[in-house]
């Protein structure tokens, strides 16, 4: 029987955060579910149990309250999964000051504040952190300036934390998924569905047509990667960027034309 850990999950109400909660609840861990909207968190908690804390993960004031409640309920923290994110569409000339700040706050500040608040308790238990990046941490898609910039910066945060806190036993890693079937990604399929008059499955097939595995990930698959990184099996891994994208980032884009010759 594995020893139950106390695991904090931000962005726990939907998508990958929700899948992480469900995956870890099956192993009997104590969960802290954090998000801005209480209703989705309560819905997840009804299936997984755990402490629901609604508030902004990018707010130091919220984290002061969160940490007090976590310490009172569980005594400490063994792992942080920083899954909160989103926002940041638009090329730079279409990005207002407010939109830029929202992209940084949602994708970078949330991870920074989460890690800074949890680290004292993580140090006590020689715990670990997983930051949720993206293949946008490695390459740029069209007209997603804020999101791409914030996700690239997340890798810098990952490496900085891993270097500074490895000596006291805290491991920090980043998971970089490609397309994952989540409510957020479903919304991103809408323009394709409208333009090509196709359904959601066809839109996902279209965006993964040049991905070696020819499909998006499920949220459960990404949750399994996160679960591995906070487990004892990953005890030597820190500062890593684990790419879970079906192979899309290994594709040599200028050679894609040759796939068409072979009908692949």
Topology record:
Layout: E1 6-10, H1 15-25, E2 30-35, H2 38-48, E3 51-54, H3 60-74, E4 79-82, H4 97-125, E5 128-132, H5 145-165, E6 171-177, E7 180-181, H6 183-196, H7 200-207, E8 217-218, H8 219-229, E9 241-244, H9 256-262
Parallel strand pairs: 1-2, 1-4, 2-3, 4-5, 5-6, 6-9, 7-8
Helix pairs in contact: 1-2, 1-8, 3-4, 4-5, 6-7
Instruction: Please state the CA-atom Rg, rounded to the nearest Å.
Output: 19 Å
Question: Helix/strand-derived class?
Answer: alpha/beta
Unreliable sequence segments: none
> What spatial order of strands do you see in the largest sheet?
3-2-1-4-5-6-9
Measure the end-to-end span. Answer: 46 Å
Number of helical segments with 4 or more residues: 9
| Share in β-strands | 5-15%
Q: Which architecture of the largest domain per CATH?
A: 3-Layer(aba) Sandwich
